[in-house]
């Protein structure tokens, strides 16, 4: 297959139905792999259709009644696919055709960053606000982040039966799938590195090297605890596990960069490469899960901006962020004081430091919010302990915050969706 391939369709070659565009089923992307794409008209005015292939629509050709797709990335997955967008019920003829060629079973996969809900009513699947694919394969290629939500089977009577693969909320199901897919690989890599570090400690390494080794081990123990919590059905999430793995990876990189080149170094580098590959892959998946977290909005009062009740999950998290949107350009975080509602008057009047906030230019979840969102990490310390004690937070206001929207955010805090 060439690096880029093009297919052109005139408008009379496609079928418009209920505001949807259905490309001909003979559209051939990769040899015997036939693909039909369904999209809303609005999707034709720019980049669209990513997931099993990155497809870009040419705007100018679109205006002339011709659609040209440039395939940027084709994924070699067996089976026939139908991509669905926004409130689309599967048409019977499409489903019948797919079932006839796929051993009587079809799986619904999701490629979403913001899953809402899947409705399965009267043998109809309705998809709201996110991308999904029907496939004859229960699993997809490893380079694609997707997971199945329900299986569609053809009954002897010729009717279709829809069976949800999970009776639990979407997040719980996703966490379970993530865990089953990666737990053995994570354990193997972490234990291997842990054993190497412990062996190094027995060889009388330098004092600075000793401290770095202990830091690596500390992160490995955190990963162990996180995985144990997930295994027992606790609150730890894939995103939190990824963050621990990422910190572990950075510490291990620093550790091996600080040693002379020996045969042992090459062994360490091999472990580091395995860990790097895992972190890259899990990072791609983790960014989807983190979007499920919920925002807590501050309310503007007469004197202060307040958040009167903070959930315990956030108070117990070490990943809490203050988000400020629609700021004026001359805003400086040092111009405001942040503390618990009870402490803020004292902090303000006596010009005490208040809650420590660190500006984060890039985080795992930066892509969720608009480019004008300023993200500040809430650091541990005395004032944060007071916030934990009182369960609330407040800040002084400035003219720059007059039209701003302010939120407290933690990837660990999620509002569960309704069950399938």
From TrEMBL:
The lineage of its organism: Bacteria, Pseudomonadati, Pseudomonadota, Gammaproteobacteria, Thiotrichales. This is Type VI secretion system baseplate subunit TssK. PANTHER family: BLR3599 PROTEIN, TYPE VI SECRETION SYSTEM BASEPLATE COMPONENT TSSK1. It comes from Cysteiniphilum litorale. It comes from the Bacteria. InterPro entries: T6SS_TssK (IPR010263). It holds the Pfam family T6SS_VasE.
């Amino acid at each position: 297959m060439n690096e880029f391939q093009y297919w052109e369709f005139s408008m009379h070659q496609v079928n418009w139905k209920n505001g949807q565009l259905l490309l001909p089923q003979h559209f051939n992307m990769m040899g015997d792999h036939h693909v039909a794409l369904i999209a809303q008209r609005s999707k034709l005015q720019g980049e669209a259709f990513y997931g099993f292939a990155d497809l870009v629509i040419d705007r100018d050709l679109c205006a002339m009644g011709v659609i040209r797709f440039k395939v940027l990335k084709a994924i070699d997955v067996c089976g026939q696919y139908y991509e669905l967008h926004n409130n689309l019920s599967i048409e019977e003829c499409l489903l019948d055709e797919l079932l006839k060629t796929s051993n009587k079973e079809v799986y619904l996969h999701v490629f979403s960053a913001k899953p809402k809900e899947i409705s399965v009513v009267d043998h109809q699947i309705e998809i709201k606000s996110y991308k999904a694919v029907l496939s004859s394969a229960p699993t997809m290629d490893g380079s694609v982040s997707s997971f199945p939500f329900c299986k569609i089977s053809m009954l002897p009577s010729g009717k279709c039966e829809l069976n949800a693969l999970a009776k639990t909320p979407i997040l719980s199901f996703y966490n379970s799938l993530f865990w089953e897919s990666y737990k053995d690989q994570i354990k193997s890599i972490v234990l291997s590195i842990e054993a190497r570090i412990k062996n190094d400690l027995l060889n009388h390494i330098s004092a600075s090297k000793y401290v770095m080794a202990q830091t690596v081990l500390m992160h490995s123990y955190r990963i162990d605890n996180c995985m144990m919590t997930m295994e027992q059905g606790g609150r730890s999430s894939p995103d939190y596990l990824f963050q621990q793995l990422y910190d572990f990876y950075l510490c291990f990189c620093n550790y091996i960069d600080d040693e002379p080149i020996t045969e042992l170094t090459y062994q360490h580098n091999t472990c580091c490469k395995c860990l790097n590959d895992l972190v890259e892959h899990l990072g791609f998946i983790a960014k989807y899960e983190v979007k499920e977290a919920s925002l807590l909005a501050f309310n503007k009062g007469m004197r202060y901006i307040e958040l009167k009740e903070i959930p315990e999950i956030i108070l117990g998290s070490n990943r809490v962020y203050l988000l400020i949107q629609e700021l004026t350009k001359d805003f400086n975080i040092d111009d405001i004081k942040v503390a618990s509602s009870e402490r803020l008057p004292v902090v303000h009047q006596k010009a005490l430091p208040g809650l420590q906030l660190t500006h984060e230019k890039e985080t795992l979840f930066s892509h969720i919010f608009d480019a004008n969102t300023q993200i500040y990490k809430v650091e541990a310390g005395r004032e944060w302990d007071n916030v934990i004690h009182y369960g609330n937070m407040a800040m002084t206001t400035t003219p720059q915050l007059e039209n701003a929207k302010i939120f407290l955010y933690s990837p660990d805090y999620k509002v569960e969706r309704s069950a399938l």
